[in-house]
Amino acid sequence: MSPTLLDLGLVAVGLVVLTAGADLLVRGAGALALRVGLSPLVVGLTVVAFGTSSPELAVSVEAAVIGNSAIALGNVVGSNLFNITLILGITALIRTMTVDRALVRRDLPVMLGATVLPLLMLLDGVVGRLDGAILVAGLIGYTAFNIRASRREAKASASEMTDDMRAAAEAVRKPLWWSLGLLAVGLVALVVGAGWLLDGAVGLATDFGVPAAVIGLTLVAAGTSLPELATSVVAARKGEPEIALGNVVGSNTFNVLGVLGVAALVHPVEQGGVTWPTLGAMLTASVVAFGLLAWRGHLGRAEGAALVLAYVVYTAVLVVTTPIG
Question: Structural domain of residue 91, as residue ranges?
Answer without folding.
Answer: 3-319
